[in-house]
Fold this sequence. Notes:
The protein is an alpha/beta fold and 244 residues long.
Amino acid sequence: MRANYKMQRLFVPDDLTHGAGFDASPQQSHYLGNVLRLGEGAEILLFNGRDGEWSAKIAAKTKKAVRLEVLEQQRPQPDHPDLVYCFAPLKVGRLDYLVQKAVEMGAGTLVPVITQHTQLARPSIERLRANAVEAAEQCGILAIPEVRETEKLERLLGNWDKERRLIFCDEDASTNNPTSALQGVKERKLALLVGPEGGFSDEERRMLRALPFVTAIPLGPRILRADTAAVAALAVIQAAIGDW
């Protein structure tokens, strides 16, 4: 069942069942009451990443608080997306964009990775999670991606699940066509690794190419910014061997 894009959607931490009632967060109350100017009886959609999507109504409203009452389920909870997206953190504005687009493109797990050329050492995990929630609210997504703590590339690869194919964007690949490399991927468990603005170092590229669970792909003849490369790679993977 497709999402209803005509109604306002909010992520809430509360359990969603018929007749349940709870107060929206202060930020959500302000948004519903003062920005959208919704009154008592107005209906919205709620999801929590566990119980599917539910319609709800504004049961009561004051200047500072909005009370919500859950009505009925609109969509059941889908399976959590299995695609793991590993990325070198970028500058804050572009990192927000990158996370939001990765969620839209079907990433189920987000893993910040420190490489030799990474410029931002430790991104805010809470900010990454907030961006993931915002993307889910806007795009009808019900499963909130898991955001893991930042790892160094060497540690990530050392602890890697060997049954999950890791696809990494190699700007020095000998061809411009990624589909031929992806055609040889047989695993259903997939992950994508996108490097920093300066690309992977020669040492990192050799390390990645030596691992049996890694597949290197190019992204065409043009030089792409890291956030653009992320969207392009996710689209190629989903179209070639993913859920498209």
